[in-house]
Amino acid sequence: MTESIYAIGTVGTPWGEAEKALWLSQQSIKRSYLEHVASQLDAIPAGFQLVCYGQLDYRSFGASEYPLYAVKSKVWDPAKPSVLVTGGVHGYETSGVQGALAFLQQQASEYSQAFNLLVLPCLSPWGYETINRWNPKALDPNRSFISNSPVAESALAMAYVHSVSKHWLAHIDLHETTDSDNSEFRPAKAARDGTVNTNWNIPDGFYLVADTKQPAPDFQQAINEAVAKVTHIAEPDEQGCLIGEPVVQPGVILYDTKAAGLCAGMTNAAFVTTTEVYPDSPRSTPENCAQAQQAAIAGALDFLLKQP
Predict the structure, then answer these.
(1) How far apart are the C-alpha atoms of 11 and 196, rounded to whole Å?
(2) Does this model's pTM top 0.90?
(3) Is 219 domain-assigned?
(4) Which residues 6+ apart lie within 8 Å of 272 measured at CB?
(5) Which of the four, 49, 144, 158, 210, has the lowest number of CB atoms within 10 Å?
(6) How many structural domains comprise the chain?
(7) Rounded to whole angstroms, how far apart are CA atoms 189 and 192?
(8) Residue 3: inside a domain, yes or no?
(9) 258 lies in some domain
(10) Which residues contact 65 (CB under 8 A, 6 or more apart)?
């Protein structure tokens, strides 16, 4: 592991408004949310409806207005268990977005008789367009699923999800761990916060982050078994860890999702997981990573179908 010093700011001093403005000035639009994500939602299957649950107005940051979309079961049946799928909480993590869209287009109908389904495929469209972990205010949506959240991406998603249902059986949150975590995002976070960054080892492969308070090991195992048919599961490092956390079962680590303000902690679902796939692996492709995310959703739902 190596320490990395970021180009903006003074070591040991948290960023002020000047440093945040300098960081923002270095961001640029690299791809289109409307083209890659929103336009794909024209093809949702019968039995589902497209909902615009909010709008992000980032024109004052030199960007655009972004409509936020969800796809939900058209008939929400209180007698059915409800399952939430989220992607693009970190906009740069492409396979989560594309995996959620592929699931909607190819598989959601298969599960619609058994479950109420709600899919938010891209919570952070500005992050998607600029290939960024943060929003334009240099805030991380995936540490901001908290009461009175200062992050619009998180607050709008929470408000909508809670308005749809207070009772969720499961939540699958789709993420990636990338080489840019070490080259850009972790050093930037340390600089922003006035701390010193120590890079972690990037796991080569797919793994899951379960909730410390309710780890549901059989659920995690079933997802990894489904994904293993598509791509490889990450092996622990020499210390028996993935991203610095002890491996508690093959391909699974634990976080306290609510305490950390993670998206996966926004409900009280009994079955919760955060997927992580490594798109920079020489053994993977973008298509393969999206397929892994899709397999994770299907594996989770197949497991739930077998529960009493």
Answers:
(1) 7
(2) yes
(3) yes
(4) 170, 171, 173, 210, 211, 214, 216, 257, 264, 265
(5) 49
(6) 1
(7) 5
(8) no
(9) yes
(10) 55, 56, 57, 58, 59
